[in-house]
TrEMBL record:
Residues 23-355 form the FAD/NAD(P)-binding domain. This is NAD(P)/FAD-dependent oxidoreductase. Residues 486-496 have a biased composition (Gly residues). Pfam families: Pyr_redox_2. Transmembrane segments: none annotated. SUPFAM superfamilies: FAD/NAD(P)-binding domain. The lineage of its organism: Bacteria, Bacillati, Actinomycetota, Actinomycetes, Kitasatosporales. It comes from Streptomyces physcomitrii. Keywords: FAD, Flavoprotein, NAD, Oxidoreductase. The keyword NADP does not apply. InterPro entries: FAD/NAD-bd_sf (IPR036188), FAD/NAD-binding_dom (IPR023753), NDH-2 (IPR045024). Residues 456-496 are annotated as: Disordered. Belongs to the NADH dehydrogenase family.
Amino acid sequence: MPHGQVKAAFSRGTAPGPAPGARILIVGGGYVGMYTALRLQRNLKAELARGEAEIVVVTPDPYMTYQPFLPEAAAGLISPRHVVVPLRRVLGGCRVLIGEAESIDHAKRTAVLSTLATEEEGTGSLELSYQELVLAPGSVSRTLPVPGLADHGIGFKTVEEAIGLRNHVIEQMDIASSTRDPAIRDAALAFVFVGGGYAGVEALAELQDMAHYATRYYHNIEPTDMKWLLVEATDRILPEVGEDMGRYTVRELRRRNIDVRLETRLDSCEDRIAQLSDGSRFPTRTLVWTAGVKPHPVLAASDLPLNGRGRLKCTTHLSIDGAPHAWAAGDAAAVPDTTAKEEGAVCAPNAQHAVRQAKLLADNLAASLHGRPLAAYAHKHAGSVASLGLHKGVAHVYGRKLKGYPAWFMHRAYHLSRVPTFNRKARVLAEWTLSGLFKREVVSLGSLEHPRAEFALAAGGGRPGPGSRPAREGGAGGGDKDGGTREGGGTAEGSP
């Protein structure tokens, strides 16, 4: 629908509003997708009630994952269900469609979708028309052609992967405790993390903290028996918190007997042996890959303009450059950073920008429908915080550097204020309070991944022995769901 036609429709009515039946398609249910839909259903409340507008959210999961809490969920400090926000509950004025966008033809205003029912129906993909498009599919894990990675790597981008990794780590401790083979024991107690960004460092620190605590319940495992290794290809970790805090983090991790290898790459992990570029070899049953993200494949399957890194070219108004009625923000969007000193700089793909961009995007989209002027996005990076385990952290906020308990407290306070809905805030705060009063839970519930195993055994089928349950996709404990339509977080989900 040409923009002029929308304005003409307004001029004929008594009250400005979208043209009858205007459909706003939002691809992605992460930070940008959820916050944009939430604000749009408020901005267009009257139009939605009169049936003059419709908001459709296409997302592979019926919930939004608050990714900064994934490390704490993996460590058992927060319940998994409190890390996610149910979209149908908070987006009562929207139509939530569980599926993925396969391709987009914006010239024709159509998107090809696959839903949960697509395969069951056997009728092929669904073609959905729209008038306004918000493209916020987020990013997917960036992998490299490392031999063995697809077979043995574990991702850390979804709540399923976080809980699967927790179960896997505890299961490896159970294997080490019961085996009589020294080689199996050593491999089970070796944990390798690749990537020194927020996801890798926080996941490693929280899980090492949890495993260290859990050893008190194993009669034959001491904390010093475990090997924890962080591999980073550059010369620093956590670049978002500054060089000084990055060096402090390396010292803190090494003080906890965590082997930090800078300027080192993973060359191979075939046969469950991590081979590094410095010649080291580590037999391991746990290899976690957190080495960055890349744009979602649906961007390349569209006719929308992309920059050299595969992100959507956007204006400061959060519209896609040269594509009327198309909008984007978050990981998928290259939004000009008007506060940066460098010419041509774009906003970093982190949660700090994603949440703020989503709100302005919704306001600008509604303003364009009502014929009002648009506002430009401008936000100066406030700083970053990161947790390094219980009561430990680093922070660099508004030029001030904090470490230890104060940084950890700031990390929790900030993210508690940012997690969506009062319901989730109250539940997370209650769990933190209870965890301070009682001992940490260190039980593995890996059998939840195979709920039919017991019934299959009763019905005459076989069941694998302890420690050899069928591996989830990705090998040892669950791999990435490549191609999932997710948004937000990027490599700096810890940013305030």
